Fold:
Amino acid sequence: MRTRYSEDQQAVSEAFGDLFAREATPEVVRAAEGRGGFDRGLWHKLAAAGAPGMAVPAADGGGASLVDLAVVVYEWGRRIAPVPLVEHAVTARLLCTGAGRGVPRELRDAVVSGDLMATLALRPVSTGGSARLVPAGAVADVVTGLRDGALVLDRSEPPGEARPNTADLPLADRDLSGAAVIATGEAARDAWNAALTEWKALMAVAYTGLASEVLAMGVAYVKQRHQFGVPVGSFQAVQHGLADAATRAEGARLLAFRAVSELDAGHPGGGRLASMALLFGAESARFASDRVLQYHGGYGYSAEYDVQLYYRRAAAWLLQLGEPAAEVARLAEHDLGPKGRAA
Amino acid sequence: MDFTLPAQAEAFRAEVRQFLAEHLTADMIAATRDGTIHSPALHRAIAERGWLSGAVPAELGGGGMDPVELCVMLEELQLHQASADALGVAVVTVSVILEHGNEFLQSAAVPRLLAGEALGCFGYSEPESGSDVAAARTRAERDGGDWIINGSKMWTTLAHVADYVLLLTRTDPDVPKHRGLTFFVVPLDSPGIEIQPVETMGTDRSNATFYDDVRLGDEWRLGEVNGGWDVMKTALKYERGIAGGQFPSPPVIEAAVDWARRSRDDGTRPIDDDDVRSRLVQAMIDVEVSRSFAYHTAALASQGVMFGVEGSMTKLFASESYKRHCSWFLDMMGTDGLLTHDDPDAHMDGRIEEHFRHAPVTAIYGGTSEINRNLVAEGWLGLPRSR
Structure:
């Protein structure tokens, strides 16, 4: 049992922390907002560093664990970097394991290397085969989804343009009516559920990266901003709001990494923890960005300060999955049994 | 990173469960309602099993139970509603005496405490000082080779069943407050001590203790004269390791689920209501957050990392969320939620109602939520001291 990074993970954390700090600056994030929420140059650098396919099996060109990937995702979340790392990494794993392996080798290799960008249509695909508001749908070359119970893969030219949205995420509709069937039946469902679960756990981790960075931003601001002749960070009302946010963020971080660790170990409770970690991570990231925006006063609401970038993403990331209440309902069904049936 | 509990810890959990199945009776749980918050028979059984001495750090000569296993034991005690307050206090008392005490104290008090024959209690807070503990005014003055103690302590929980009190006194009023403190181990049967009950809104009771010309030999002094703050820091350090309190909610959630599955008069069930389901899920998420905190701090301690602020976060989150859960599920029960354990219709011995009344104290004792937020703001976020 080890609840801290190993030495290797510490090294990975520092290397990618540096990369994102250097290449995914707030200026880069802002510039991408006008360009579909995506920065191709950053994606190439990430691919060169081996991140997109790092957590596929070693035989396929990866070899890192899901926890190792989460260490990178945490740094990605801290910088709200405009590249679809989580969607891609999860899809790469999907195409290299179980039922997902039924795709041509060249395509799999191109996804693992990051030459092709891949995503998954998180929400159910309509019977006609259209997938609305697909995460990274604006830029992904490959879209996977569950269409009428079948695992399908579409390779087509991405639209490039995103649907205008709260956080300038690369959301776009994709047509999966002509997508190739990779697997059907139980195998398809299992593979898809595993990918969805991994997305939840990794986004939970990303959320805690977002929360930690927005808190660091808030702390720096309240230390230098003076009112009434003293730093606003010396006021207990401000301190206690930030302390509550930090406590929730740290709890969320531990729960998220615990979920990833349990998934890595193949323990049956991992999926439940992933859902819980995502809901709690999203809530704590929203709380942290709300407190930090508030303690910036009017500047927090201005476009000039970076907290608004975090505030919008804190709300938006989770909603790519659908209604949060539906995730709560799934957890309730898992832990309490179905509704409306007397015991 | 690997958050999975070691197989050894899970095996130990099974052992603790077996032990509780054999030793923990419904009477023992009910007995805590008379206000003692202590079950002598259970306490002695735990001591006989070696788990009390086991919980004392190895470097002090204790059993040095792995902190992860200790965490699992405290988790199981709480899940089964077994009173563990006296256990924690005894472990802290022994640990502090072993670290700071002279040979006399170590031979007079420690063996009896370890055997579960004697109990300790904490004499830190006073009527005029709680969170500002270093402001203690209870005086200890030299009289030849002896000390004469005068003053009063508040929230001396367990004093009415305990044998020793770890007493924080003022020995020099003319220096900055942290530098004029001295600790004593005071036998509670010493002449001049009076113990008065402090009844609470919950079913537990605390005490006010009064010291009127209590004469003590110097051998009862714990640590250096005017070195009391060092002893205090040691006590708080060990308290973090054994404090428990990270798992108050599961028994409440268990009762809430049980209630929610019952049919109302119109045939509907609360458990089919979306808001009830949502709150149950939220409470279960909070429990998993608390569990993650608890396992994390235990794992840190197990690797020899002395954690600090993480302990404050753990306690802050667990107690504040526990209060929310009690309110939610009291509301869920409607009027029936008001029935106390004395009423024959009270659901599961009025468990939720009882927890509802108990919950507020958990955000107060052992460091209030406000103090813990200060510690997080200063120690974790690096904000300036605000008091």
The first strand of chain B starts at residue 120 and ends at 123.
